[in-house]
Amino acid sequence: MSRLLHVADGPYAPPVPARELTVTAADGARIHVEVHGPEGAPAVVLAHGWCCSTAFWAAQIRELAADHRVIAYDQRGHGRSPANPAYGTEPLADDLEAVLDATLAPGERAVIAGHSMGGMTLMAAAGRPAVREHAAAVLLCSTGSARLVASATVLPMRAGRVRTWLTRRILGSRAPLGPVTPLARRILKYGTMGPGSGPDMVEACARIVHACPSRVRHGWSQVLDLLDLDHGVRELRMPVEIVVGTADRLTPPVQARALAAALPDCVGLTELPGLGHMTPVEAPDLVSGKIRALAATYIPSARGERAVPVEESA
Fold first, then answer.
1. In whole angstroms, what is the distance from residue 225 CA to residue 87 CA?
2. DSSP for 182-205?
3. Which residues, including other chains, have CB under 8 Å from residue 202's CB and lie 6 or more apart?
4. How many helices (H) and strands (E) does the chain have?
5. 133-142: per-residue pLDDT in tens?
6. How far is CA 40 from the centre of its chain?
7. How far, in Å, CA of 231 to CA of 224, rounded?
8. In this predicted model, what pLDDT tens digit does every residue of 281-298 receive, in sequence order?
9. Cα gap 73→292, rounded to integer Å
10. What is the rounded CA–CA span in Å between residue 22 and residue 306?
11. pLDDT tens digits, residue range 150-183?
């Protein structure tokens, strides 16, 4: 039972998808995709973060799939997407582009939400044709574009070279996380969640994170360590909203404020007092509400209007 990939019941248990498919990225990587909700409904695409899976979005999927077509996929090496030797921001962009091309009709617009590495995926793919064609609006949850290790506050010590060196070794550890024990839950809660996170939230996140293979966790930690996507932020030209917890130790509010200042069309920055890095789990109703509001505002079909093809609106 210690190796369950996700919780089996409660609000964070993943709903059964309407359909599943495997998408092949440009380099041959196979990406597991789930589609929830009614066909023809306004589309939402969800990209999870480092060490997570589609199960991370369970609360959003359950709430939004009643009247949206919700598309969630596993980043390569995570969840049910097989590991691949290619690590980097370009492969992340390849995967998102492949998912958009495979699940959305030509010219169809969607709200794309990315958490942590999922938000970085959007920054990496911002200039890709599929993102330009399909992204009506974007929600960035608990993410950053560069200098992640230096800005992280996992270690309670003064910022500087020593803290950065130690943080790099902690986040880049090759050690397996092992079973989900009471101690493991406490460590995960300290590093990734706010102090007020309930036991059900901690359990849900622990199951997901501990299910990520250690080699995959390490491989992507190296990408995050060297991340520099400031140029990609400036290419996100669609409306973008940002959510961050004030107690986020991995991508603290300084990262969110830098994004807000650099984005061409930032439509809001929400800082959630006392919440940590796992905002879609810690504030499920708020995050779902942000996605729903973006869809209602920026997707014509969500307002009952005729969708205008991209070539007509250019």
1. 12
2. HHHHHHHHHHHS-TT--HHHHHHH
3. 185, 188, 189, 193
4. 14, 8
5. 999 999 999 9
6. 24
7. 16
8. 999 999 999 999 999 999
9. 19
10. 31
11. 999 999 999 999 999 999 999 999 988 989 999 9
